[in-house]
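Input/output pair, single chain:
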Amino acid sequence: MNLGIDGRVAIVCGASKGMGFASAKALALHRAKVLMVARDPSALEAAAKAIAAEGGVVEAYAGDVRNPDLAQLAVDRCNALWGPVDILVNNAGGPPMGSFLEHDGKAWETAIQTNLLSVVRFCKAVAPDMKSRNWGRIISITSTVAKEPSPAMVLSATTRAGVSAFSKTLAIELAQFNISVNVICPGGVLTDRLVSLLLARANREKREYQEVLQESLASIPAKRFAEPEEIADVILFLASERGGYVNGVSLSVDGALTKAYT
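Output:
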């Protein structure tokens, strides 16, 4: 299938590992030019070199998505390297576990800046050029807790649901310009983030890690976690010419974990 992204310019956030890295690699190996953004410069450089070694055109750009200037700086870097941004993948590490009464104001502010306002800023930075060129693809990676919230994941549930609401309004506004805005809601994916959450849960509940791990696996109808590449494959389609009519969707990619059918 010709995805129609050959030569397209992309920004992928959280690109040094996990789903972000898999997404950057998938886009680059389908001949998009990818600016990889992440906080850790050394991990980011290693990730970029790994993709470049396979023939991908990538550039590393270190920065924290909480920085209000980062989005425009990243767009400016893309313009200097390759031209206007065609594809944006928003992705950032999730906030810590904990119930409503456990988190102070600083934790809420950090979560909102990292997981919600960063999406707003990056979308605002890329949208004008996408409108003027009548083509754009915006995909944000969140979580199934946006659809089925858990009290122990209140920070993530709140901010992720905000991304879905924001993305829906943006999709309605920008669809006439051939711009799609979608959200991917993964369930359990084999990443460092998943391991840290399972360890935190085991510690909170004073249980063995392996017990919590097996319980989590058993809760998924598919009886397995996703690989990051499986999430990246969905993003690749949504970023493509072929996926343009899928718009304003918060899509669960979770092995049938969520019970809701929307």
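The domain at 9-190+226-253 is CATH 3.40.50.720 (Rossmann fold). DSSP finds eight helices and seven strands in the chain.
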